[in-house]
Structures
1.
Amino acid sequence: AQVDKGGHKHFMAKEIAEQPHVIAEAIRHYLPVEEDAVRLPGGGVDFSGVERLTMVACGTAYYACVTAKYWFEQIARLPVEVDIASEFRYREPPIPGKTLALFVSQSGETADTLAALRYCQEKADKILSVVNVSESSIARESDLALPIFAGPEIGVASTKAFTCQLTVLLALALKAACDRGHLSAEGMAEYATAIRGLPNVLSSALEQNDAIRLAAQKVSEARDVLFLGRGLMFPLALEGALKLKEISYIHAEAYASGELKHGPIALIDKNMPVVVLTPKDALFDKSVSNMQEVLARKGKVLMISDQNGIDEAGDDVWCAIRMPRVKEALTPILYAIPAQLLAYHTAVAKGTDVDQPRNLAKSVTVE
Ligand code: G6P
C-alpha cells in the first residue's frame, strides 16, 4: 500500500508522532491484556538454560541492542555481548555452548547483519531476530523472528522502529528474567502495567514539541554538540547523537557522563551545547555533578529530565525539556522522543533534506 505523510511535512515527523500508536500495537502482541506474562510468537524461547546472549546489529538497531544489554543484565542477570555487525563478522568470535544469538534489524536485509547471522547459524544454540519486515532475509533465516509492528518506516533516519525494537527487547528481557527466576509474578505484573501505560506517556512527551523546536533553533547554530548520559541514558545519548548528525549534519558525539573527565571536557566552551539526558533515577546525582562540570566551563546545557529533576538541578541550564515520570527501566523508550524531535527540528531549522539525508541509504544491502 502507498504510504503518505498523513498531513505532516516529512515522513520523519509522521513516524515520530505515530509512536504511541505503533508501540501500543507491539504491546498488544507481546503483553496481551488478559495475562501478566510475555507472549512470544511461534514456539517462543526458554531462557532457563541459556548462559549468554550475543546481540549484533548496525546503526540505530545497534543502539537498541546496547540499551537491551542493560535490561538483560540488570533484570534477567544474563551476561550479554553486543557488537556492530561489520566488526563481529570478521573477528571470528568464539560462540560457546548455550549461547543465544539475537539480531536486530528494521529492514531485515542489512548485509553485515545477515552475514553475522549466517556466521552464528551452526554455532549458536538458537538464532533470534527482532525485525520490522517479517518476510525479510534475516527473519527467514532465524529460528524465531520477533516482529516489532512499527509499520513501514520511510524516513531514512530510524525513529519508530527504534522505540518498537526497544519495546520488544524489553519484553524479551522480562521473559528471560521470569524464566531464570529473577522476576516474581508480582514484579512482572508491575512491569506489564507500566509498559501498558507507555502509549499515554509517549503522547505527553510529544506535547513538548514546541519547547523542543525552540531549543532546536539554538542548537542549529552549533558546529558540534555533545550528548551525555549514564546507565540506560548512555545508549540513548549515542542514538541522539547519531540522529542529529544523520539529518542535520552537525557533528555530534555521545559520551557516558562518567567519561567526561577523560577527554571530552576539553572541548567544552561557551559555544558547545551539551545535551544531558537525566531522568531523576538512581544515577541522577552523579549525572548532575557531571552537568555542573559542564556549566562551570560555560557549556550550554540542554537538560532533558522530569519535573523533579529540573526543579532540583535545572537553575543554571540553557534550556530544560520536561518529560513525564516513568518506571526507570522504561526511560530509554520515553527519552527517545525528545532526542528524535531535537534532531528533527534542528534539521528543519537548517533546511536539510530530513527524509533523504545526503549520502545515507535506508537499508545498506552491500558492504
Ligand atoms: C542504515 C539506516 C539506519 C539503520 C541501519 C541499520 O544505516 O540509515 O537508520 O539503523 O541502516 O538498518 P537495519 O535495517 O538493519 O535496522
Note: The chain has a mean pLDDT of 96.
2.
Amino acid sequence: KNIVILASGSGSNAQRLMEYFEHHTTIRVAALFSNNPNAYALKRAETFNVPALLFSRNEFVNSDKVLLQLQEYQPDLIVLAGFLWLVPQHIVKAFPNKIINIHPALLPYYGGKGMHGIHVHTAVVQAKEQESGISIHFVNEEYDKGDLVRQYRCPVLPHDTPEELAARVLQLEHEYLPKVVEELLLSNGTENSQR
Ligand code: GRF
C-alpha cells in the first residue's frame, strides 16, 4: 500500500511516518509533496530516498498537474502532515476517504483557517483549557471539518507556555500518527468506504 505525504514545514511527522514504514512489509511512503521550497520536510524525504516533489499554488489549485502526479503514486492514503493549504475540490473528489489530516488540538475546537502551528496552542493556553490533544480526521473541502478518525488527549498544565504545550502535543502526534495510518491501511476498507 502506498502513502503519499503532503507537508509544508519542518516535517517531523513526515519523518516519523518514513521511519515507521521504512521496513514495513506491505506499506511504504511512496512520495512526499510540498508547496514550500524551503520546507525541511523535503530534505527529510531525500534522506529516506523518498521522492520529493514541489508544486506551486497555481499547479495545485488551477490545474490537474498535482492531481495527476498524485495519481502516479497510486496512493491508498494521502496524509497531510503540517500541510497548510486547503485541498482543492477536484483533488478531494478524486480520493474519497483517502485523505487525512493531523491537527494539533481537539477538533471541532481550535480549528479552521488561520488556526495552525503556535496559534492553536496560544489560543488553548489563553482559554485556560485543562486538556488539549490531537485530531486525525478525513479531509473535505473545508479546513479541519471532515469526519474524525481518532483523537488523543494530553493535559494542559497551569503554567504551560504555548511552546511547552506544543511540544507535548507534538509528542502525541509522533506517537500516534504512524499507528493510525497503519490501522487505516490494514483495515479491510469496508468501514472507510462506507463513510
Ligand atoms: C503539527 O503540529 C501538525 O499537527 C500541524 O502542523 C504541525 C506540523 O509539524 N498541522 P511537522 O511539520 O510535522 O514537524
Note: Residues 190-195 have pLDDT under 50 and may be disordered.
3.
Amino acid sequence: IPTAQRDFDYFMFVRQWAGSFCSTHACPLVPNRGFHFTIHGLWPNYSNGSWPQFCTPEDKFDEDQLEDLMDDLEVEWPSVYDSDETFWEHEWSKHGTCALDIFPSEHSYFGHILKLHWRYDLSAALRKADIVPSRTSVYRTKDLIAAIEDMYGARPLVHCGRKRQLSEIWMCLDKDLKPFDCDTSQEGNACQEVVIPPFKSRLDVDQL
Ligand code: 5GP
Ligand code: 5GP
C-alpha cells in the first residue's frame, strides 16, 4: 500500500525496452532506434514491497530547471506514447519528490539518473552475452539476468509483457546508489523466456 512518507529503504532503477511497445504501435518520436534502453524511472522502495509516492506535492515539476539536461533527457528518457514532459513530470511528482533526502532538487534527481543510466548500460552487458534484439531469437530470462550480474555485480528483475516481449529491466540500488541483488519474490510478471523485438521503421508500423 503506497504511502506518502519520505523514508524508504532502497531504489528501483527501471529501464524500458521501447522496441516491444513500438513493435505494435507507431513511435515516431523515439530518437534512437538501435539497441538502446530508455529510462522509466528511479523509484524509492520499502523492503516489504511497498513504496512511498507523491510525497511533496508542493514541489511542482519545473522544466526550466532541466535546461542543460534536456538534450540528454530527450534521447535517454523519451515517452513512447505521451509528451516527454508529461512523463518526466509524472516521475518527478510520484517518485522524485520522495527522494529529496538523497537528491535535494529536481536537477540533482534527473542528472543523477542520467549518470546511472550510462554507468549501468544494459545493452552493453547483454550484447557481451550475444543477447541482442531479434525477430527470431528467444532468450532465457536467466541468461539476461546472468549477463547483467556478470557486468554489474547484482541481479536485476526482468519484466515481460504480451507474447513474452521484454518490457522492462529493474535494477535494485541501495541509498548510496550501489547495485544489489533484487528480491525475486517481488517479481511481478516473470517469463522464463523473452523475446527482444527490434524497433521497426515507421514504414513497418504503417504496414501493420
Ligand atoms: P505496474 O502496475 O505497471 O507495474 O506499475 C504501475 C506503477 O506503479 C509504476 O509506474 C510505478 O509508479 C508503480 N510501481 C509498481 N511497482 C512498483 C515498485 O515495486 N516500486 C515502486 N516504487 N513503484 C512501483
Ligand atoms: P509509473 O506510474 O509506473 O512510474 O509510470 C507510468 C506512468 O507514466 C503511466 O501513467 C504512463 O501513462 C506514463 N508514461 C508516459 N510515457 C510512458 C512511457 O514511455 N513508458 C511508460 N512505462 N509509462 C509512460
Note: DSSP finds seven helices and seven strands in the chain.
4.
Amino acid sequence: NKQQQTLEFQAEVKQLLDIVINSLYTDREIFLRELVSNAADALEKLRYRTITDKEVTDPNLPLEITIEVNEQDKTLTISDTGTGMTRDELVDNLGTIARSGSKAFLQQLAEAEQKDLNLIGQFGVGFYSAFMVAKRVRVLTRSFVPGEEGCEWVSDGVGSYTIDQATGLTRGTKIILELKDDAGEFASPDTIKRIIKRYSNFVPFPIILAGEKINTVQAIWVRNKNEITDEEYTEFYKFIANAYDEPYYRLHFSADAPLAINALLFVPQENLERYGFGKTEPGVALYCRKVMLQQKAEGLLPEWLRFVKGVVDSEDIPINISRETMQDSALVGRLRKVLTGRFLKFLGEQAKTDPDKYGEFWKKFGIFLKEGAASDFIYSQDIAPLLRFESSKSEPGKYVSLDEYLERMPENQKHIYYINGPTREVIEAGPYLEAFKLRDMEVLYTHEPVDDFVLTNLAQYKEKKLVSADQPELDLPDTQADLADSGDAGKLEGLELKNLLAFMKQALGDKVSEVRESKRLVDSPAVLINMDEGMTSSMQRVMQALQK
Ligand code: ADP
Ligand code: MG
C-alpha cells in the first residue's frame, strides 16, 4: 500500500487528544521526556536485535538521539536510529491506545479540574503529549527490517492523520514538532538542555544537541554505593520508573555468589493498583554488563513483587538469551531467588529500624505481600514476619506482627487466633471475642477477605497453628471459673438441654447443620460456628460471590 491514506484516530485517542490540546498545563515540558524515552526504547530494541544476530537496515549507524531546534521556524526535531516503524506499526502505535490502564487514566484526566499529565508515560500514551506544544506533528520513520520502505505520518491532532510513503530515509524515527505560538521556548537550545538534564539525564544513549552530547550516559547501578548521592539516586529512579517524585524505599546491593549481581531496587510512593489503574506491569529491567536485555522483565521477581522498580545487572546471563528462553530459564530462576530473598530481608530490616515508615508502606503495598503469602508456597513463610494486622491489643489503626503476638502470648495459650470482620467496631461488638476477652487473650483482626486466605494458607507460624475464632475447636485454656466448676445458677442439664437443642434444630431446619451447647459464650446467648475446617466464614462468602 504505497498511496497516501487519511485515517481516523481511535475514539479513545480522539478523546485524549482533545484534552491534551485544549487544556492548560504548567508542566508541558514533560512531552520531551516522553519523546526521548520512546527514542531510547526504540534504540534498546534495536541494540537487542543486533546482539541476537538479526540483520538490520543500516547496521553501521551509531545508536543515538539527535535533537535539532530552529528558533526562526519554531520547530523542534527529535531523531533516533532505533527500530523505526512500518506503515502498519504507525497505524497501531500512533493511532490507537492498546494498554488497559489508559482508559482509567483518560477518565481520571477528563474529570480532574487540575489536569496533571505527568503520569501520561506510565499509561502507554506518552507520544500524544507532543500535542501539548505542537500544532502539527510529523513523524518520518523507516523500520530496521530489511526491505521496508520509509513512511511519513502527519497530524494536527484533530480527528485524523495521514500516512504517506517517504523516500531517502535511513533507519529510525524523526519526529518534527511545529510548535504552537505560545510554545516557542521549546525551540531554544538552553531550554532543551535544561529539560534533558532534568528528566532524561540517564538515558543510556547519547543525546546530541548542536554536535554536543548533553546527557550523562552512565550505569549508576554498577558504581560504588558510597559515591552516589541521594539526588543521583532519585534522578535515576525518576528516569527508570517514569516517576516525578522520590522513591519510598531504595535498595542498592551487589553480590558475587551464587550469581554476580548488581541491583538497584525502588519502592514507589504510591500503589497505582489502588486507584483502579489495572495490574501493574513488572518494573525491573534486566541488564548484562550495562546492556539492557529486557525492560519489563517477567519472571525476574515473583508476580507479587510487581510494584518494585529498578534494574538488575548480571554478568552471568548470556547476552544473546532470547526473551522466550529467558522466562523459564534456570538462571533467571536463580536470579529471582537471590533478588526476592534479599528484598524481603530488606523489608524486614526497614520494619525494625522504622516501624512507622514500614506501617505506611504496609498500608499501600501490604496487599502485594498478602498476595504472595496467599499464593506463593515458596515464599509464604518468608513473607509471614512482614505481615501486619490490627488486633484486640493494638491501638486502632496501628498494626502488630505475628512475632509481637507470639512475644505477648501467655504460656498456656496453644494457638494464634484471628477473626474476620469489616471493621474493629463490628468485630468487637460480635460474640466471637467474648471467650478471648475473658481470658485476656489477643486476637488478630482481619479486615479483608484476602487476609483469611493468607492465614489459612500459612496454616502455622513458628510452630503455632493459626486458628480462626469462628471454628468449633478453639483449644482455649480453662478459666478460674471452669476449674472451680462452680456451675451457673439455672444452667440446663441432661434431658432439658437435649430437648432444647432438638427444638432449636427443628426450628432452624436446614439453615444449620447442628445446634450445640457452647462453652465459649459470656454475654451473648448464641454464636454461629463455622463447621468447614478449610475455610473461614469470610472465605466462604468470597467463594459464594465468585460462583454467582
Ligand atoms: P509507550 O511508549 O508507553 O508504548 P507511547 O504513546 O509513548 O507509549 O508510544 C506508543 C508506541 O509508539 C510505542 O510503544 C512504540 O511502539 C511507538 N513509538 C513511539 N515513538 C517511537 C520511536 N521513536 N521509534 C519507534 N517506535 C516508536
Ligand atoms: Mg512512551
Note: The chain has a mean pLDDT of 88.
